[in-house]
């Protein structure tokens, strides 16, 4: 087994179909496969063996895709790191993963400290250039066969609640998720999609890139998000599948002609964070399209559950995908019944091999074969999963456990709220003080007293935020996931200083 077989198959069946388009290149499946073969042959020639780590630290591009599949074809492990990381952020991850080869661009080369493990840096002015590899490589390379449980890629977690960990995903892990995405989204060779999310991340790399390649669809790649270019691509390339994150859907909803701009889009999917139900309803009302959500994470190679075409349930993330089991457990690991809140635990061939060089953290992440997600959820009587919150994001105020998402859902029903985030900040009296951060919609004035009165009609008194803070933006990572840890750290410091000044 080799996950790169999906490219070989697509190239065999649809050699002349367009596979990848970026700002400078259009590649058919036949061309993409040949170029990846050339990279694989050159990697082997330069001493890369099956199981060796090869790092990719580059922006989204057709070159990234070519190199990625070249690494997999050679039987090596693709360590995909965020191009936006600073030198200080990259260094510990490079030392931990120890790549023999690094693929990057000239502008990033100086951010990479060369360790003894690193033999070759590939960029225009590196030890070896990407263009030279394409010129001298062989297009007849045969994919190196790997065992299903051999590591194919190491993806680092987003680090929203802790330091990033290297997730080892096997060929079987990725293949399982790819097949589930293709099946549940009814993908085929006539589909086309846009990817502006970073390819180092599980959603873009596996759910979008690998699944699109597997179904022989066309993928338009953008280096980052630009609303005008995004909408132009939808119209120019007759995009059928829309992949975005909640923030982007919220921004698109503010466009008066968004229904017309979507053109041939038949399918909309949101990832990175749970979508507020009010936004989903607004999108359906405005465009006539559902926003589909699945549940997944880096450790599950993306898809765990999927919300269906025919029985789409707003607010749910669907039922388990093929071959995957989901349970709800209490804090001691006991299995809970339906409609009972607890930790979401997952078992299946999509679950990671473990965290790279972190045996203790790997052990702590499992109850036997069941992976502990760290998410709080409920399964209803029809097997639909609902994500309530992150365990680490629950607020304990006055001895009560409060779900931030529950409060956020209510805030999103207000016309003056465009985006919001609820967190707990240190408080002498309550332990944690429920605080709501709000981005006003279209310069609407926010009246905290009116908001409190409204929330009291929908929530218990102890769930009402003690404070409302207006902001122009909320901190997010490169995939659009809200960084509550950063928000908490930023405001906790000032809150603790106030407490110190008052209490001494």
In short:
By secondary structure, the chain is of the alpha/beta class. Strand 25, helix 15 and strand 26 (467-470) form a beta-alpha-beta unit.
The CATH topology of the domain at 5-209 comes to Rossmann fold
Spans of at least 5 consecutive residues whose pLDDT stays below 50 are 498-504
Determine the strand fraction and express it as a percent band: 25-35%
Query: Which second-level CATH architecture of the domain at 5-209 applies?
Result: 3-Layer(aba) Sandwich
Helix content: 25-40%
**Roughly how many Å is the radius of gyration?**
23 Å
Name the overall outline: globular
Q: Could you explain how this protein is built, in words?
A:
The protein is an alpha/beta fold. Among the domains are: 5-209, 3-Layer(aba) Sandwich (Rossmann fold); 394-503, GMP Synthetase, Chain A, domain 3 (2-Layer Sandwich). It has 16 helices and 26 strands. It has a seven-stranded mixed beta sheet with strand order 6-5-3-4-7-8-18, sandwiched between helices. The chain has a five-stranded mixed beta sheet with strand order 11-12-13-14-15. Strands 16, 17, 19, 20 and 21 form a five-stranded antiparallel beta sheet that branches. β19 (366-367) and β20 (370-379) form a beta hairpin. α1 packs antiparallel against α2 (29-45) and α7 (171-184) packs across α8. The longest helix is centred in the C-terminal third of the chain and has 20 residues, at 484-503. It is globular and about 70 Å long. Mean pLDDT is 90; it is low at 498-504.
């Amino acid at each position: 087994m080799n996950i790169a077989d999906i490219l070989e198959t697509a190239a065999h069946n649809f050699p002349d179909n367009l596979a990848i388009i970026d700002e400078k290149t259009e590649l058919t499946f036949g061309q993409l496969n040949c170029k990846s073969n050339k990279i694989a042959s050159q990697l082997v020639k330069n001493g890369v063996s099956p199981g060796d780590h090869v790092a990719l630290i580059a922006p989204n591009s057709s070159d990234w895709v070519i190199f990625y599949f070249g690494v997999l074809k050679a039987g090596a492990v693709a360590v995909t790191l965020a191009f936006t990381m600073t030198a200080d952020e990259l260094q510990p991850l490079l030392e931990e993963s120890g790549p023999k080869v690094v693929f990057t661009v000239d502008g990033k080369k100086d951010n990479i400290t060369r360790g003894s493990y690193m033999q070759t840096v590939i960029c225009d002015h590196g030890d070896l250039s990407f263009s030279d590899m394409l010129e001298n490589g062989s297009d007849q390379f045969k994919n190196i066969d790997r065992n299903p449980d051999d590591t194919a890629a190491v993806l680092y977690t987003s680090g929203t609640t802790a330091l990033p960990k290297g997730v080892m995903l096997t060929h079987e892990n990725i293949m399982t998720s790819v097949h589930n995405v293709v099946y549940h989204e009814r993908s085929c060779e006539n589909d086309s999609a846009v990817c502006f999310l970073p390819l180092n991340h599980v959603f873009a790399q596996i759910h979008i890139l690998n699944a699109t390649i597997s179904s022989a669809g066309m993928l338009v790649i953008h280096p980052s998000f630009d609303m005008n270019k995004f909408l132009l691509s939808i119209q120019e390339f007759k995009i059928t599948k829309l992949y975005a994150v909640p923030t982007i859907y919220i921004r698109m909803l503010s466009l008066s002609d968004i229904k017309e701009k979507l053109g041939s889009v038949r399918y909309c999917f949101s990832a990175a964070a749970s979508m507020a139900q009010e936004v989903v309803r607004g999108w359906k009302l405005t465009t006539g399209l559902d926003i589909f959500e699945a549940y997944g994470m880096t450790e599950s190679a993306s898809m765990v559950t999927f919300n269906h075409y025919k029985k789409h349930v707003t607010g749910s993330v669907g039922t388990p995908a093929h071959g995957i089991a989901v349970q709800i457990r209490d804090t001691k690991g006991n299995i809970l019944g339906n409609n009972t809140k607890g930790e979401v635990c997952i078992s299946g061939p999509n679950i990671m091999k473990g965290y790279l060089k972190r045996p203790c953290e790997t052990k702590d992440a499992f109850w036997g074969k069941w992976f502990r997600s760290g998410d709080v959820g409920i399964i209803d009587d029809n097997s639909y999963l609902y994500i309530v919150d992150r365990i680490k994001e629950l607020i304990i105020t006055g001895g009560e456990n409060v779900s931030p998402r529950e409060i956020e859902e209510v805030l999103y029903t207000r016309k003056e709220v465009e985006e919001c985030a609820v967190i707990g900040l240190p408080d002498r009296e309550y332990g944690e003080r429920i605080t709501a951060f709000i981005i006003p919609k279209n310069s609407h004035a926010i009246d905290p007293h009116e908001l409190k009165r409204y929330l009291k009609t929908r929530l218990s008194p102890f769930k009402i935020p003690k404070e409302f803070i207006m902001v122009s933006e909320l901190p997010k990572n490169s995939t659009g996931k809200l960084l509550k840890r950063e928000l908490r750290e930023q405001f906790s410091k000032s809150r603790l200083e106030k407490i110190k000044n008052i209490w001494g």
